[in-house]
Amino acid sequence: MNLPTIYGSPQTSVEVQQYIFSIFAGEICVYNEFVMRSSKLPLIFALSILSLMVAVAFQTVRQYGPYANGSPDSGTCGNMWADDTFDRFFKVDTRRNPDGSYSVVEQFKNGNFVSRAGFTPGGCEGGNPNPPSMSAGITGKMQGQFWIRVSNGTYNHGANPGNVTTAQFIAAVFGPNATYQVVSFSLNYNAGNNGDWRNASSDKGGNQGDIR
To answer: Is-contact 102 183, C-beta < 8 A?
Structure first.
């Protein structure tokens, strides 16, 4: 049988068989290369997830929260002037400070307060002997944060503190023997026409304003 003449193609039956086989084998090689490359995708994805998990596990600063919480709030006269509700967050620097302590920032977000009857929050600022009073039921917004130093503890990466207070969080994350100190703080309260009050440590500007 005579084969048609095609440029670059074999002209005998044996050559045709070899040509067809070479094409078929080449396609298998291409297919196998594709499969090999494709089969690496799940591995690459898994390694990416693992890398992300490792990065999260060993990141320097870890955030916890939000924890819906609340507490009574004291003013400069020592009385509880309001009841607060807020979302509590903690940012923990997992590295020890040179003195062996840890640094934690506690944040209060989405806060609200309702006043109690009694002395105003800023009423005794500067040693005022005749502080003004406020009525119960004044409402407003609040937010702020504490800068905390934790001592005598060890950071536990696997801790799951849950919905906690400051003291409970420190105990859960740094151990029951850990102690802490609020070294700086800044809290802002806004009651609209009833005024604004800022409750802050001296390094954050000190107390300012009042609500009444």
So the answer is: no
